[in-house]
Amino acid sequence: MSNAVSTDVGRDAPRAVRGGLAKRRQAEKRFRFLALAAIVISLAFLALLFASIVTNGYTAFEQTAIRLSVFLDPQVFNQVAMENADYAGLIKAALRHRFPAVKKRRAKRLLYKLMSPGAAWQLREEVLHRCDLIGKTLDVWLPADDDVDMLIKGRIDRHLPESTRRLCDLQIRWIEMLEKDGAVKKRFNWAFFSGADSREPELSGILGATVGSLLTLIVTLLLSFPVGVATAVYLEEFAPKNGWTDFIEVNINNLAAVPSIVFGLLGLGVFINFFGLPRSSSLVGGLVLTLMTLPTIIIAARSALQSVPPSIREAALAMGASKMQAVTHHIFPLALPGVLTGTIIGMARALGETAPLLMVGMVAFIADIPKSFTDPAPVLPVQIYLWADSPERAFVERTSAAIMVLLVFLILMNAGAIYLRKRFEKQW
User: Mind listing the pLDDT tens digit for each residue in 104-121?
Assistant: First the structure.
């Protein structure tokens, strides 16, 4: 009887094992399916986000211009210096000449609104470079108002009721007449890349914010890289292993996880209120981002130093090199690719930060391009934040276009980090 029981158990055991293996395989398949589905969903949302940004922003790289025949009346230039002439009045006179039927004051105001306030400044630059045109008629392309720009780009439906549009039927009729005469066209928007911030969407640009970001990153790099690398080398190669160094290491790891706005509050309290450094400047922004970037660089540099095989240290010391010589001539050069990669990633994170810079006043409206580290300066992420909060429809496309530019910078920086890692990485 005992033999029969053992035979039955022997028969059931393979069946139970096979059943357990089948269940585990099914669970593995489900896990793989869920993991793949999560990746596909994440990529789909990412693609949807990028598509939304590109769809809203690509039109910002073009700007609508209107061709006007402007008579440069000598009487306008005889009374004052050429720099101070009434160029806006010349543009208004050209519009009245182009539409002679417009007589009423209200209709004239509507007609003048077709042109951007910056058209007078562009005409001024044209005349200052061509003084021989005084007394002649100049055919010039001048920027249109942002509402006209949105209409030409299809962002405003001209078939909607007049009460729901920012342009009235009379203005649309004038625009259609200009289009019929070939006096309206879209040109590459150089002002977006060569100008600073402006209250007028058609005149706003990212050059001021780009220069501000560059100056801020220079301060961050000059401070965070040497301090971070020196700290990592000391902790990894020279510091004794005791409670004090353990305390420092724990706090460095904790600082890497601190919300960025905390560093902004620290910068506001220390650099501005205590030391009295200029608010809204690249210097203060760079100091704040240095505090935020240091833990990332230190951790990356320590990991790179740890990746160097101990045999290299031992060989250098065995050949009579001092500890400092072994580190500077052998260990650190081999760890440099990893150090640079971590530094670039830290700088890319600093480039995209907004919250800490808001706390030190870099949210102010600044219409000038910064010339030094102490000048008031915007940065690209804060510029995007300001434009996103503006009510004008034209600022929506400027916001998306600025995001596209910022993403290009971030992609280039991360691509540079990957290149350095692949180019100089050594397999042990």
Answer: 999 999 999 999 998 999
**What pLDDT is recorded for position 420?**
78
- For residues 286 and 212, the answer to whether their CB atoms sit within 8 Å is no
3-class secondary-structure state, position 355: helix
| DSSP-derived secondary structure letter, 329 | I
Helix (H) or strand (E) holding 351: helix 332-351
What pLDDT, on the 0 to 100 scale, is given for residue 9? Answer: 45
Structure tokens given for 390: 């503006």
Please identify every stretch of the chain with a pLDDT value under 50, giving residue numbers as ranges. 1, 5, 9
Domains and CATH numbers, the chain: 62-188 (no CATH), 207-424 (1.10.3720.10)
Cβ neighbors of 388 (< 8 A, separation 6 or more) are 395, 399
Name the burial class of residue 204, with classes exposed (0-12), middle (13-18) and buried (19+) by CB atoms within 10 angstroms of its CB. Answer: buried
By C-alpha distance, which of 209, 194, 205 is closest to 363?
Answer: 209
The β-bridge relationship of strands 62-71 and 184-188 is antiparallel
Q: Classify 276 in phi/psi space as left (phi over 0), alpha (psi -120 to 50) or beta.
A: left
CB 196 within 8 A of CB 369: yes
Report DSSP state, residue 201.
G
Separation between Cα atoms, residue 168 and residue 175, nearest integer Å:
11
Are the beta carbons of 290 and 219 closer than 8 angstroms?
yes
CB count in 10 Å sphere of residue 290: 24
Helix (H) or strand (E) holding 168: none
pTM of the model: 0.85
